[in-house]
Amino acid sequence: MTETAPPPEIEPTDAELLRHIHRLAVPVLVQQALMYFVGVSDTLITGRYLTSDDVAAVTIATYISWFLSGLMAVITAGTMAIVANRVGAGDLPEANRIVGLSLFLALAMGLFIQIFGLSTAGAIVTGMNMSGPSAEAAAIYFRIVVAAGPLIALRIVGNSCMAAAGDTRTGSQIMVVVNAINVFLSYAMVVGLFGLPKLGIAGVALGTGIGEGIGGLLSVAALIQGRAGLRLKAANLVPDRARLARIVRISLPTLGETSAGIFGQVWFLSLVNRLGAISTAAHGVAIKCESISYLMVGGYASPAGILAGQYLGANKPALARKAANYCWALGNLLLAGMGIMLFFVNEPMFRVFLGSGKPELIAEGAPMLPVVAFAMPGLATINVISAVFRGAGATRLPFYSAMLGLFLVRVPMTYLLANPEDGTWMGWGLKGAWIAMLVDLNLRGLWLALQFRRNRWMKVRV
Fold first, then answer.
1. DSSP line for 193-225
2. Which secondary structure element, helix H or strand E, spans residue 173, and what is its range?
3. Are 326 and 21 in contact (CB under 8 A)?
4. CA 380 → CA 275, 286, 328, 369, distances in Å?
5. CA-wise closest residue to 154 among 69, 84, 96, 228
6. How much is the pLDDT for 462?
7. 432 half-sphere exposure, CB direction, 13 A CA radius
8. How many CA atoms lie within 13 A of 136 on its CB side?
9. DSSP letter, residue 230
10. Measuring CA to CA, how many Å separate 122 from each of 9, 112, 128, 199, 265?
11. Do the Cβ atoms of 425 and 358 come closer than 8 Å?
12. Closest C-alpha to 279, from 430, 433, 126
């Protein structure tokens, strides 16, 4: 059974607190890396064995999948805040009641995502300025993956419950299995391994959907068996209006943040799509490279949120703030190294995805990585401090940040700058979109840092 926060009556030394942060962070880093590789493997296989239209299709379908899975924030934010708080207070029966209700909500939301996605895939892709072979491939990929929606929802929420209680290891072990199944089946159904049919983009999607579905079953099985004081029982699945309302009340701002963020990202992508399929595909590969920074800093964002919730539940606000500061500093240190890699190793990173082929994508996309290298301080702050606020239940602050950054900075700047290159100040092509991203991330990080320093997040009642 994985350790949870130190008992409330024990004040950890700085060295003990740092060790505890790292015990929580390492499994999260593994889990984040494996979750990232689930998506990356699709791009790797598509980039090496299929067409540029298929690469563009995976980019589009990934954004849409992010949006629908982002709807799970209506459950996970409130669940993690309450479970961490109750574990910190030593109230495991209430924590277990919240776990059962959260899984009930996850199944309902997953079914909604499945039905909605299957019925609107084509219309969504068309609405994102895609047409022709890339649009057809994106709709195929998306429909297959979203069919596993209920099981994906159970994995996301189940792993979040265990993490909130301090068990970050089980989620990473589950992702090992998900990733292995995904890579093997996707590759096998693209190249026709072991006599399997060559299904092209559909094979890539099937590998992803099957792997994710098995991950959901494993997460539920782990909670039934019991992890970090949590145990799923049938009695806790019975709906309770007051507790459900409590979960949703805390989560709604995070749902707003996630929905606004993904809507803004989709809008942002639709502006990039105006530049053509080559720019869209290059943008997608560049995002995969840049996304390494998210998985790295996520290793410290997760402990920041978990410990903020647990220590505030134990009535230790000074300790919650200290843990947050350590995670913030460690996240910035990690992303400083990532920024150096993005700046100096951009072309080799692209070649990992595309091999020696598709030089047009490398020429278009690799120069974007040095631009976003300068956004690493903002990115570290957004991820870690937002996690702290969510763990404390102060979920409105990240929502305000996403709204301001995306809709007042990134999208307007992209409209102005991301036009076909024509030598004018508004014709910067794909680079204009990435400059808009750079400004957005750093301004958001600055605003969140100021809110953290004001300390009001420590006074929110969960």
1. GGG----THHHHHHHHHHHHHHHHHHHHHHHHH
2. helix 169-191
3. yes
4. 30, 18, 7, 16
5. 69
6. 73
7. 26
8. 5
9. B
10. 56, 17, 10, 20, 19
11. no
12. 430
Instruction: With CA atoms as reference, report the closest residue to 138 among 218, 258, 76, 57.
Output: 57
Q: Is 129 left (phi over 0), alpha (psi -120 to 50) or beta?
A: left
pTM for the full predicted model: 0.77
* Contact criterion met (CB below 8 Å) for 126 and 46: no
Written as six digits, the tokens of 17 are: 């607190």
The answer for residues whose C-beta is within 8 angstroms of residue 260's C-beta and 6 or more apart is 399, 402, 403, 406, 407
b/e per residue 40-50 (b: at least 16 CB within 10 A)? bbbbbbbbbbb
- Do you know the residue count of the chain? 462
State whether the Cα torsion 28-29-34-35 is positive or negative. Answer: positive
CA distances in angstroms from 318 to 9, 308, 460, listed in the order given: 14, 10, 14
What is the predicted pLDDT for the residue at 9? 53
- Mean pLDDT by 10-residue block, N- to C-terminus, for the chain (462 residues)? 46 89 88 70 74 75 66 83 91 94 93 89 78 82 88 93 90 88 87 85 87 94 92 92 90 82 82 86 87 87 92 92 96 95 92 78 91 96 95 91 93 88 70 94 96 92 76
Sequence-distant (6+) residues with CB within 8 A of 435 are 371, 413, 417, 428
Which two structure tokens, joined as six digits, stand for 196?
Answer: 């399997």
C-beta atoms surrounding 131 within 10 Å: 12
Secondary-structure breakdown of the chain: helix, strand, coil percentages, each rounded to the nearest 5: 85, 0, 15
CA nearest to 95, candidates 310, 249, 304: 310
DSSP structure class, residue 233:
-
CB 122 within 8 A of CB 64: no
pLDDT at 7: 45
pLDDT at position 58: 76
Per DSSP, the three-state class of 417 is helix
Residues 6 or more apart whose Cβ sits within 8 Å of residue 364: 278, 279, 282, 430
Inter-residue contact 332 to 377 (CB < 8 Å): yes
- Residue 329 tokens read as 């500093």
Residue type, 228: A
**Which token pair is 194?**
């072991």
Cα separation, 350 vs 346, in Å, equals 6
Packed helices 14-49 and 169-191: angle between N→C axes, nearest 10 degrees: 10
CB distance 101 to 78 below 8 Å: no
Nearest to 310 by CA among 324, 328, 292: 324
Residue with tokens 């994985």: 2
Separation CA 448–CA 324 (nearest Å)? 13
* Contact assessment for residue 69 and residue 142, using Cβ atoms and an 8 Å cutoff: no
Q: Where are the domains of the chain?
A: 14-459
